[in-house]
Amino acid sequence: MAELQMLLEEEIPAGRRALLDSFTNLERVAEYCESNYVQSTDKHQALEETKSYTTQSLASVAYLINTLANNVLQMLDIQASQLRRMESSVNHISQVW
């Protein structure tokens, strides 16, 4: 029960906030890369830097999505287990009556 509460109150909301923060950070990175490319005299170097930032940013977002998805799946597993226990209790009560 404590694990479910921690997921619902802390882990999942923190994961959502991290994804929202990533959205803002991705916008900043995109603006920087565009500005850097326009102002750069070495377009090839600017493009390589943009590719590097893009790769890092996408890897970060993928990690956050994976972490959040795992937390949601864990929450669903716990809830399914609780439902199975309740179903078993209801079946037991119906057999006794």
Automatic annotation (TrEMBL):
It comes from the Eukaryota. Residues 45-97 form the T-SNARE coiled-coil homology domain. Keywords: Coiled coil. GO terms for molecular function: SH3 domain binding; signaling adaptor activity. Gene3D superfamilies: 6.10.140.1620. GO terms for cellular component: actin-based cell projection; lamellipodium; SCAR complex. InterPro entries: ABI, T_SNARE_dom. Coiled coil: none annotated. GO terms for biological process: neuron migration. Belongs to the ABI family. This is t-SNARE coiled-coil homology domain-containing protein. It comes from Kryptolebias marmoratus (Mangrove killifish). The lineage of its organism: Eukaryota, Metazoa, Chordata, Craniata, Vertebrata.
